[in-house]
Design brief:
With 1007 residues, the chain is α+β, with helices and mostly antiparallel strands. It is built from 29 helices and 34 strands.
Length: 1007
Amino acid sequence: MTYEIEVNKKRFDAEPRPGQCLRTYLRDRGWFGVKKGCDAGDCGACTVHVDGEPVHSCLYPAVRAEGRSVTTVEGLAEDGELHPVQQKFLDAQGFQCGFCTAGFLMTTAALDEDQLTDLPRALKGNLCRCTGYRAIEDSIRGVKHAEAPCAGKAVGRSLPAPAGPQVVTGTARYTFDIEVPGLLHMKLLRSPHAHARIVSIDTSAALRVPGVHTVLTHYDAPERLYSTARHEHSEEDPDDTRLLDDTVRYVGQRVAAVVADSEGAAEEGCRRIEVVYEVLPAVFDPEEAMLPGAPVVHAKDAKKARISRPQDNVVGEAHGEIGDVEAGFAEADVVYEQDFRTQRVQHASLETHGAVAWFEPMNEGPGGEVGSAVGVDRISRAGETDEAGRADSADSAEGKQPEGKEPEGKEPEAEESEREEEEGSTGRTAGIPAPPEGQRLMVRTSSQTPFLTRRALCVLFELPLEKVRVVAGRVGGGFGGKQEMIVEDIVALAAMRTGRPVKLEYTRAEQFYGATTRHPFRIRIKAGARRDGTLTALQLRVVSNTGAYGNHGPAVMFHACGESLSVYRCPNKKADGYSVYTHAVPAGAFRGYGLGQVVFGMESVLDELARQLDMDPMELKARNIIKAGEPMITADGEEEDLHIASYGLDQCLGIVRAAQEQEQEQEQEQEQEKGQTKGPLASPPGGSVPAGWLVGEGSALSMIATGPPGGHIADARVTLLADGTFDLAVGTAEFGNGTTTVHRQVAAGELGTTVEQITIRQSDTDVVRHDTGAFGSTGTVVAGKATLRASQALAASLLSFAAAHLGVAKEDCRLVEEAVECGERRLLLKELYAAAQAAGQELAEDGHFGGTPRSVAFNAQWFKIAVDPGSGEIRILRSVHAADAGKVMNPMQCRGQVEGGVAQALGATLFENVRLGDRGQVTTPAFRMYRLPAYADVPRTEVHFMETDDAIGPLGAKSMSESPFNPVAPALANALRDATGIRFTELPVTRDRVWLAMDRRARGLDE
């Protein structure tokens, strides 16, 4: 056939492959702005225009585009000028990770005036997991939030993200937005059984498929056991995972990997592998898994694997008591006890897990050969990312070291890692070729933890640190799900086996059954109080279903039992926690790290306790919350390095009270106007919902540590460059958390310049000594503090050198934009650089922070809702969130974090649920089955920041990426209780559950 297509005004005549969709055809031609989020037409990330009409290119056959004109996000701008929609998204900063942004831009650019009046319908085909949609709506409406930069006054201002221009033009480079010569593709064969032993596996037919290069099975995998979880201290997690195992423990576990010239050949190879299984008994209920005689998930040595009681399927447990809870309950006037359940939730980051690995010369730092095209994302002073999509741009400036000192070779924890994990042993893993002489393994991955992933790969394959480099480009969302090593290991093995570049990119379905989920919890809480509301005892029992593997299991359970108890003063506390193996898809790290599950139960119990005491729930909580200066006491006692370094919880409660009072005043005014009295079926104020709907309000609070226990390490380096600008090197990854923006603001403020004068290099194991990773809410409070220290040290060095060079006192010098002013004299920074070079001195400084001591952040959420008794539908009439973030580094960006957290939590509260079938298989492996919150589902949340200044965080800041999630579910459940009189104890509170409960109550079937 003769095929011709116009893409962004360029002609192409290459015929599409049989059955190829337009999305892959466009990406094969280098138009990487077209994203893969679902390949099912559910998310809209792949939206393009065909003859001016928006289409989901993942569903659109490429052959249908013959003779048509296609426009991608890269083609929206004309003559060097941004399209008006692109400019609006920049002005309002209508993105976070940015992976969905191209799709929203293309959809919005095609809307007419009528469609703009009905955004819920217009945007129903586009999903965003990060923003909560308010910033997207403001972008479409033309609201401007971004401020202009000002020298020396960066912190505390709503400055735009440096990668914004690339995000809105489709040139920001995510993991697979690259061209790698000679690339091979990997597909995985997965287990159909929840528990089975592989008796035999025959790969001969697969190897005969044209284009297949190799098939990897457990015979090719190292014997070493490890955990996929990434923590600074690996002993926090059990060593229970083998790269490819001869025993499978959940439906979807990888059995074999086929590496081929194309994905199609690899998929066909998987279909031709013959596996004989011995099917074994399985257990899916965590309570049943702990009973005598239950199938054992991991029959391993408890001490060696760090499993608490493998014979009972208990991977980790915690037991503690202070005071005497039984005595506390005895002295209580009111005691309330209840069971709660929370479900599995998928992270649903729009960029799925994936990695590509190859070999590069040892002397190549960031930049050089393939590495130049796919190395560290370098955000330049003008806010432009250097070209990073072509593998032949060997002289690209992307990721180059500044002149002078190279980064330190070995991370601070390497020696400890060598001792604890036998790193650097002389024996090679049997049968796995080492990297060729003079070359090293390069892994580009969608990861929150590039440094910890490098360390784990070195341990697994017995390689020295200098033989492995790991880079994370811009990451399309994480939420804790990418604090794992679940693709890098198998891709590295394949690259070493074949000697060729190898790519593995998860499908959306694989993301559901082959990645991790939020831990499902079963919680029993008992609380006692005196008549005045003073708590006398709190008792907590938690059973966490960690699934088939214990990655993050014990740590999530420990954290869940921590701040949920310590935020309240009570003389008698007891907690028993169990992290339990089952033959289900593994759980892992997820926003809130277990705290949200228990806060749901705790805040619901206290709400009910207050109702029994005929007391305002907020009054009961205010009476018992921890106060400034008081120790934080869990059931295990006081945490040594955790402090209330600033206190805004009282202000948070004040915001909630103000919202309540405002609503009460409005109700009274409207009742007087209409002569109505409030009753269970009265019309809501203003008639905002139909008559007969039930109206209620509810609130909840939470506290979270501003970092994980045991230390979280970050290094940073700031260097003066020859042109008088600055290079900032940090290890932490950017995935919509906004750390890139904040780090530049911190550095610019200390160096007396503007953010445009700061070039940042990040998330590459070559650029700094070490960085534990972008998780645990540490991007600002840990990596930001390292940046602050490096910037302060460089500022002092610049002033000292300038003073000595000019022969003046240091105290008479100050940094200004592009210069140092010393009295009447002015020395340009580029002149200062030249003088330092002539003197043989490099003007660069390092900063380090170990993550301790830690502070705490506070949040409170309030909802007013309406419920339809006839259908169970819930409408949120008003949403108010109070956040104690300390000194807010970037109000616009921080507000987006809060809104995104609330939106994600609403999804988990109202409808998100990873369901399992009777064989343990995931039955919701697509967005249309799972249901993420869309624009129409999410209310605009009023966000209020408290006025506090933290004594520990950098420049008074605290974390605010995880904590907004935690109080949402209990606040909505408490509002639902207020409206219906029914206490809902299981998430999600779907409309069918709500209707069934109300129907039972109406028919008198409930007690």
